[in-house]
């Protein structure tokens, strides 16, 4: 039965010639048969057994046909088959792949991409991406044929072209370590910037994640980027953390980058101007704070004495500056206040989170926080702050960790004297006040009403 089906398609398609496509009736017959074939090979039993004679005809159409009416269903058929019977027809599939890659390159060589070319390129890229999934061995061939086209495709205004290009590029990078290493060459800096800067999609993010496993490649790629692209890359890293794929030496690189540049954040205390260098430090800090939640990362970061020193100095400086007057480091007690974008957003949040994680079951860091007067700052951070939305929770976590199995830290906290309670403006505006009830704790009551 299956042989009869294939014979029917062969009898129609074997008469294909590009000159005959000028005949409208002939066009209709070929196009209709290709539409039927496209639907048929959606079923795995047929896509896995499509015979070589049909594949050869499809290859011929790809190389010679100009009419989208015939070319598109042909490409959709190949996309649906994506080399499922590669083992029985490797040379034919290689020929088809070569023809499609040349077709993409040829269409992009024109001054501008015409409207009729867009769907052809879309389906061609889908075919290449599907084939890479089933036959990773073709990855280097695809790379060397399309490497000069990727930036044009990736930045194309058609969102599907950009997405399918990301799909192909991820398939290549995932399958070929040699291409991943070549990609770190400075001549591809602009292309990697396009990956970072393009509208995020899962394939671009997965492509970036592949470099988490290579400490030397990630550092090399990062250092080649312009500052704004570095920020986009750090945001992608933050999205994926914590990640077991992150090479342990990458944490050393992140620590060095943070420590070397940490001081620039303080200059933003009273400035609302865009400061990309300060923002880089803030993002590096968030990477370290988020990563330190995982045991392997925390174990590595605990070896970095300069990291603890820089984090302590920054928290103390930011906290002191915030208390010195009204500035961008000051606590905003109105949780629903409208705030300007500023690098200091969540800065204390991540500093407290990082120090809290680093002192977890670590006596050395616990004692340093006590000896350098950080515990009082941690306690003072445990109040609502619109600039650091989770500061209270991370402060409680940090205080818990700094006190665990550490009697000296516990005794220090007992020795502190409670001076009173602050009155958040959001409560005052609602006609409420908080009262200290001593051993009974705190009590909320309407303003002006005495017990």
Explained architecture:
With 451 residues, the chain is mainly α. The protein folds into three domains: 119-240; 245-416, Alpha Horseshoe (Leucine-rich Repeat Variant); 424-451, no CATH class. 63% of the residues lie in helices and 2% in strands. It has helices at 2-13, 24-40, 44-47, 52-64, 68-81, 90-108, 117-134, 139-146, 150-154, 159-175, 177-183, 189-197, 202-209, 215-224, 227-240, 248-261, 276-291, 295-301, 305-323, 347-358, 363-371, 374-380, 391-403, 407-415, 425-429, and strands at 432-436, 442-446. The protein has a two-stranded antiparallel ribbon. Helix 4 (52-64) packs across helix 5 and helix 19 (305-323) crosses helix 20 (347-358).
Assign the CATH superfamily of the largest domain: Leucine-rich Repeat Variant
Q: Please state the CA-atom Rg, rounded to the nearest Å.
A: 31 Å
Number of domain modules: 3
Helix proportion: 55-70%
- The low-pLDDT segments are none
Number of strands: 2
Strand-residue proportion: under 5%
Main sheet summary = 2 strands, antiparallel
Please work out how many helical segments DSSP would assign.
25
Q: What's the CATH first level of the largest domain?
A: Mainly Alpha
Q: Would you tell me the structural class of the helices and strands?
A: mainly alpha
| Shape estimate | elongated
* SSE ordering: HHHHHHHHHHHHHHHHHHHHHHHHHEE
Quick recap:
The chain has helices at 2-13, 24-40, 44-47, 52-64, 68-81, 90-108, 117-134, 139-146, 150-154, 159-175, 177-183, 189-197, 202-209, 215-224, 227-240, 248-261, 276-291, 295-301, 305-323, 347-358, 363-371, 374-380, 391-403, 407-415, 425-429; strands at 432-436, 442-446. It is an all-alpha fold and 451 residues long.
């Amino acid at each position: 039965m299956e042989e009869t089906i294939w014979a029917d398609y062969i009898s129609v398609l074997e008469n294909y010639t590009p000159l005959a496509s000028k005949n409208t009736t002939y066009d209709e017959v070929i196009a209709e048969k290709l539409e039927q074939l496209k639907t048929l090979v959606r079923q795995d039993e047929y896509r896995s057994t499509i015979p070589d004679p049909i594949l050869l005809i499809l290859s011929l159409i790809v190389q010679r046909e100009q009419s989208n009416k015939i070319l598109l269903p042909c490409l959709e058929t190949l996309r649906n088959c994506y080399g499922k019977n590669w083992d029985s027809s490797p040379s034919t599939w290689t020929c088809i792949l070569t023809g499609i890659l040349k077709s993409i390159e040829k269409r992009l060589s024109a001054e501008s991409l015409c409207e009729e070319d867009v769907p052809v390129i879309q389906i061609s890229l889908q075919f290449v991406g599907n084939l890479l999934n089933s036959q990773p061995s073709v990855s280097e061939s695809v790379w060397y044929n399309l490497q000069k086209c990727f930036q044009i495709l990736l930045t194309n205004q058609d969102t599907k072209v950009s997405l399918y290009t990301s799909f192909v590029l991820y398939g290549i990078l995932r399958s070929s370590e040699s291409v991943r290493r070549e990609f770190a060459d400075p001549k591809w800096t602009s292309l990697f910037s396009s990956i970072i800067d393009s509208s995020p999609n899962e394939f671009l993010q997965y492509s970036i994640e592949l470099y988490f496993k290579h400490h030397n490649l990630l550092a090399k790629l990062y250092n080649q980027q312009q500052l704004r692209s570095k920020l986009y890359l750090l945001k992608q890293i933050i999205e994926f953390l914590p990640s077991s794929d992150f090479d342990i030496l990458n944490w050393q690189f992140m620590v060095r980058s943070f420590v070397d540049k940490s001081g620039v954040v303080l200059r933003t205390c009273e400035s609302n101007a865009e400061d990309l260098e300060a923002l880089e430090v803030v993002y590096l800090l968030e990477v370290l704070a988020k990563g330190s939640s995982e045991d392997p990362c925390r174990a590595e970061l605990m070896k970095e004495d300069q990291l603890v020193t820089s984090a302590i100095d920054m928290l103390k400086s930011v906290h002191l500056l915030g208390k010195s007057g009204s500035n961008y480091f000051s606590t905003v007690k109105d949780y629903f206040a409208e705030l300007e974008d500023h690098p200091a957003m969540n800065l204390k949040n991540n500093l407290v989170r990082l120090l809290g994680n680093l002192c977890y079951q670590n006596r050395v860091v616990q004692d340093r926080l006590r000896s350098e007067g950080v515990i009082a700052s941690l306690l003072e951070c445990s109040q609502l702050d619109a600039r650091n939305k989770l500061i209270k929770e991370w402060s409680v976590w940090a205080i818990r960790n700094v006190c665990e199995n550490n009697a000296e830290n516990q005794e220090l906290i007992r020795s502190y004297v409670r001076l009173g309670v602050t009155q958040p403006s959001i409560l005052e505006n609602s006609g409420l006040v908080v009262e200290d009830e001593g051993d009974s704790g705190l009590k909320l009551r309407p303003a002006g009403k005495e017990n």
